[in-house]
């Protein structure tokens, strides 16, 4: 099932939660909607699901107008962070629920329902929990059961809204991998919402980065990390150093200091220079585009994170390999291995 969204606008009062969103999701994709809180991710998902309606724009499934259909007719499965299981029903009955409430014309007989539930519990690898109640499950198990329940009706589309948001970091990581391999097996067109960049980059085929009701970039995890299209994406994904610079007559300046960096093709005016922390290479004083004094160093896993006061007035944090042995008080040269400059 393909999903196509065209020029979608959704306002709450005068505030545009979605401000002209265009998106195409291919059949069988696992797409992540990534963005800060309030960027419109849930609103977009709810409109696709048929739980909310846009002010204008189009949503189609396989070319058919989805906005003309109610939520039930759209045949969409959901898993939400707080979409609790029914507490008074066993795991088995929770998963069976969607099948039992189907319209009589399409409802399966009891033996078929039981076989289908067993199959789904096998799929999420929790068949041994069939007789338990939700209160007797861990948070991760509950979300896997919620997924089995969403899949019971054989949805054409699966929508997941921060499905692992309430779980601790270790369980989240396990479930991410599990979701990716489950998706590989079932291959249903799926969209999941997250504000966790690592989750989006690790799980999805493509990532949609949103901010303030607009799409900033759509691309593969590599695309959005390696070639961010906007200043927002660069700042939001990965750990970036952001420096206010001035582009003027083919020269880039930080404060008064001209930087030995290529300014080809850049529009003159105030701009932002972005460098990943680990892309600032440390050398002797005078060796790079920047010079600075190390203020503070702490070990941070495989790297040492150093606070450096640059000549030009800004203080930045860089990640250098541990063997560089930086010390507070050192004067160093810094050369960005890669950088990007955006106007504004
Ligand atoms: N029913 C509503 N009434 C008024 N404003 C709303 C309503 N629903 C959402 N909003 C506003 O629309 C904006 C987008 O909300 P949305 O829930 O889509 O963001 P989100 O990206 O999913 O955020 P989060 O990661 O915090 O869930 C927010 O500013 C929110 O306050």
Automatic annotation (TrEMBL):
Q: Which GO terms describe its molecular function?
A: ABC-type sulfate transporter activity; ATP binding; ATP hydrolysis activity
What is any one of the record's Gene Ontology cellular component terms? ATP-binding cassette (ABC) transporter complex
According to its UniProt entry, what is the function of this protein?
Involved in beta-(1-->2)glucan export. Transmembrane domains (TMD) form a pore in the inner membrane and the ATP-binding domain (NBD) is responsible for energy generation.
Protein name (Swiss-Prot/TrEMBL): Sulfate ABC transporter ATP-binding protein
Boundaries of each ABC transporter domain copy? 3-237
Gene3D superfamilies assigned to the protein according to its UniProt record, in alphabetical order:
P-loop containing nucleotide triphosphate hydrolases
Is Transport among this UniProt entry's keywords?
A: yes
Which InterPro entries does the record match to this protein?
A: AAA+_ATPase, ABC_SmlMolc_Importer, ABC_transporter-like_ATP-bd, ABC_transporter-like_CS, Mo/tungstate-bd_C_term_dom, P-loop_NTPase, Sulph_transpt1, TOBE-like
Which lineage ranks, top first, belong to the organism behind this chain?
A: Bacteria, Pseudomonadati, Pseudomonadota, Alphaproteobacteria, Hyphomicrobiales
């Amino acid at each position: 099932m393909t999903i196509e969204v065209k020029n979608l606008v959704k306002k709450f009062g005068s505030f545009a939660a979605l401000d002209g969103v265009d998106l195409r999701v291919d059949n069988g994709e696992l797409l992540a909607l990534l963005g800060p809180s309030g960027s419109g991710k849930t609103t977009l998902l709810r409109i696709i699901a048929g739980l909310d309606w846009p002010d204008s724009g189009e949503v189609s499934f396989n070319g058919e107008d989805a906005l003309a259909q109610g939520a039930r007719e759209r045949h969409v499965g959901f898993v939400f962070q707080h979409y609790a299981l029914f507490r008074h029903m066993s795991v088995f009955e929770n998963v069976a629920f969607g099948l039992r409430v189907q319209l009589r014309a399409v409802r399966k007989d009891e033996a078929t329902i039981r076989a289908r539930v067993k199959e789904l519990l096998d799929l999420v690898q929790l068949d041994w929990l069939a007789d338990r109640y939700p209160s007797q499950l861990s948070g991760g198990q509950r979300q896997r059961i919620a997924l089995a329940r969403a899949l019971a009706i054989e949805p054409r589309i699966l929508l997941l809204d921060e499905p692992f948001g309430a779980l601790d970091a270790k369980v989240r990581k396990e479930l991410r991998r599990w979701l990716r391999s489950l998706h590989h097996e079932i291959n249903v067109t799926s969209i999941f919402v997250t504000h966790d960049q690592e989750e989006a980059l690790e799980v999805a085929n493509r990532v949609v980065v949103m901010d303030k009701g607009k799409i900033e970039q759509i691309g593969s995890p590599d695309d959005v990390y390696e070639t961010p299209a906007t200043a927002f994406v660069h700042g939001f994904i990965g750990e970036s150093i952001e420096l206010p610079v001035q582009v003027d007559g083919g020269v880039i300046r930080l404060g008064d200091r001209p930087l030995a960096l290529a300014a080809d093709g850049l529009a003159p005016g105030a701009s932002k220079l972005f460098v990943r922390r680990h892309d600032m290479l440390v050398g002797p004083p005078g060796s790079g585009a920047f010079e600075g004094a190390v203020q503070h160093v702490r070990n941070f896993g495989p790297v040492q994170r150093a606070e450096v006061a640059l000549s030009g007035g800004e203080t930045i944090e860089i990640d250098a390999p541990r063997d560089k042995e930086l010390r507070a008080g050192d004067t160093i040269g810094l050369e960005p291995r890669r950088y990007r400059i955006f106007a504004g």
